[in-house]
Amino acid sequence: MRAEDTPPIPAALNAFLLVAAMGAGALCLWTASHAEGLVVRLVAAGVFSYVNNTVFSLLHEATHGVLHPTKRLNDGLGRLAATFFPTSFTLQRAFHLTHHRNNRTEREQFDYFRPGDHRFLKRAQWYAILTGAYWAFVPVGAFVFALAPGLLRKLRGPGTRYGEQTGADAYLGRLEDAPGGTIRAEVLLMVAVQAGLAYALELTPTGWALCYAAFAVNWSSLQYADHAWSPLDVREGAWDLRVAAPVRWVFLNYHYHRAHHRHPHVPWLYLGRYVDASAPRPSFLRIWCAMWRGPRPLPEKAP
């Protein structure tokens, strides 16, 4: 529940940005599919990787109920935004709120080797995040759940080191009570929107793949750079990363991630007010470059 003194949700601005970002994304998909020069297609894919992060940031707002003050409109716009990821809004909300509950606990310390960890598995997870392969698990997982929900549940691994180390037990455990009918409807919507775009814009597989590969790398890299080697604390375990202002604007202040974890019901527009100027603020580039060296040994005093 949002506190009474929480800033108001910029509903009209959010709706405008969602329409604009989705329109820009569609234009990038069309350009990547029909432009004659390779350079133009690559530029279109690069631009798509940013504007689709605007869409994702608005999806993120919806998961916290701060995209629109009316719940029905918040969820409806969230479902629309999810089709461009593409994924199920209900699954995304369940998994993201699980992340807030487990942030920097043993279930989400992918940046450290803990005693008993399977090192190959930990490195595989780590570089899947950095290379963008992590993104593919989201739409594929939503599709698999819609068709065969029992298959994902079998991957949960409750009570095993695998289940704890990968976070599979915590995240896939959320599927036990997931509304299967709603998720299947959202996956059908996701497929319909993607198929509609492909048909209406005459998208080529190569053009679509270029755009989504660029988005996968751009999106996936930030998803852990804002947590890597931050304090092992559920609420404080994130960074307010320094990044070029235009990039931060496109990501709708997503880089102010510690402020978000401290105040998850504050809309993106006001997060800058909640940044702790006295706390360390590493640059995104420095964290991202350090990540390529792989996970580190767990500090001796860590829990």
What can you see in these coordinates?
The chain is mainly α and 303 residues long. The protein has one domain. The protein has 14 helices and two strands, in the order ααααβααααααααααβ. Strands 1-2 form a two-stranded parallel sheet. The two termini are 30 Å apart.
Number of helices: 14
Distance between the termini: 30 Å
Q: C-alpha Rg, in Å?
A: 19 Å
In helices, the fraction of residues equals 55-70%
Beta-strand level of the residues, as a percent range? under 5%
Q: What is the overall pLDDT average?
A: 92
Globally, the shape reads: globular
Number of strands: 2
Sheet/helix structural class: mainly alpha
Main sheet summary: 2 strands, parallel
Looking across the biggest beta sheet, what order are the strands in?
Answer: 1-2
Keywords: Membrane, Transmembrane, Transmembrane helix
Organism: Corallococcus sicarius
InterPro entries: FA_desaturase_dom
GO biological process, one term: lipid metabolic process
From the structure above, extract its key features.
303 residues; mainly alpha; two-stranded parallel sheet; 2 strands; globular
Short characterization:
The protein has 303 residues and is mainly alpha-helical.
Protein topology:
Blueprint: H1 11-34, H2 38-63, H3 71-82, H4 89-102, E1 112-113, H5 119-131, H6 133-147, H7 149-154, H8 161-166, H9 168-172, H10 180-200, H11 205-225, H12 245-250, H13 257-262, H14 284-291, E2 296-297
Parallel strand pairs: 1-2
Helix pairs in contact: 1-2, 1-11, 2-3, 2-4, 2-11, 6-10, 6-11
